[in-house]
Amino acid sequence: MSDPGPTNNNGAPLIEIEGLTKRFGAFTAVDNVSFTVSRGEVVGFLGPNGAGKSTTMRMLAGFMIPTAGVARILGHDVQTDGVAARRVLGFLPEGAPTYGEMSVTGFLRFCARIRGYRGQELHERVSHGIGLTRLESVRLQPVETLSKGFKRRVGLAQALLHDPPVLVLDEPTDGLDPNQKHEVRELIKQMRPEKAIIISTHILEEVDAVCTRAIVIASGRVVVDATPAALCEMHPSGKLDDVFRQLTLEEAA
């Protein structure tokens, strides 16, 4: 297993989630979830389909109102102080929604203007985002003409435009080929020392590649929060796949 390196927990957590719960009628999608993430940490948020990963990410980003509980980003409650929270957040939602008729550059310029950038600073932010996510070859193409992988990278670029201290990335490598996955993972490792990052994923190799911690959620509840190495020790095989199956199947039962 690769070593993601030491965790830097200096200072107050940049992300705080306390008792976060979401119910849809009689169905509880997220059930009393609590955890914190500090600068220098990359937390893999793992679970089977329907476990509540994306719902938790949407509540953290302020795009879904929780039934109970609170989420804070740099101390800002995402519901009562949402504008301040979003200023310091880079969010890549599930599906990476964009305006398909816009070119890649046009869409990113639009996002930068919404963030308040103008003139040379806007140009520099967009150019930097395109460079980070390797979009130079498609920068003039309409987003709707791109492959799924390139669309995902456009979504990642918009999340990075304002160099936020907190990143919430829902399936950041979904649709990417192996080379593109490697590039995105290297970018995450490069950014890690200065940011608090949550990656929602069902790809276990992602945890091995970039995460300092792994939180496993099943049936809306957190079943374990540990380092990847500690996770592997939970099963005789030492394999994350076996640990994941053991934890999630036990919870489902």
Question: What does the model show?
Answer:
This protein is α/β, with parallel strands linked by helices and 253 residues long. The chain folds into 2 domains: 1-88 and 164-253, Rossmann fold; 98-163, no CATH class. The protein has 9 helices and 10 strands. Strands 6-7-8-3-9-10 form a 6-stranded mixed beta sheet, with helices on both faces. It has a 4-stranded antiparallel beta sheet with strand order 2-1-4-5. Strand 9 (213-218) and strand 10 form a beta hairpin. The radius of gyration is 18 Å and the shape is globular. Mean pLDDT is 90; it is low at 1-9.
Mind telling me the CATH superfamily name of the largest domain? Answer: P-loop containing nucleotide triphosphate hydrolases
Task: State the CATH architecture of the largest domain.
Answer: 3-Layer(aba) Sandwich
* Rg on CA atoms, Å: 18 Å
Give the ordered list of helices and strands. Answer: EEEHEEHEHHHEHEHEEHH
CATH topology value of the largest domain: Rossmann fold
- CATH top level of the largest domain is Alpha Beta
Which oligomerization state do the chains in this entry correspond to? single chain
Q: How many strands, which pairing sense, and closed or not: the largest β-sheet?
A: 6 strands, mixed
What's the count of strands?
10
Q: Categorize the overall geometry.
A: globular
Find the structural class using helix and strand composition.
Answer: alpha/beta
Total helical elements: 9
Percent helix: 25-40%
- Measured distance between first and last alpha carbons: 30 Å
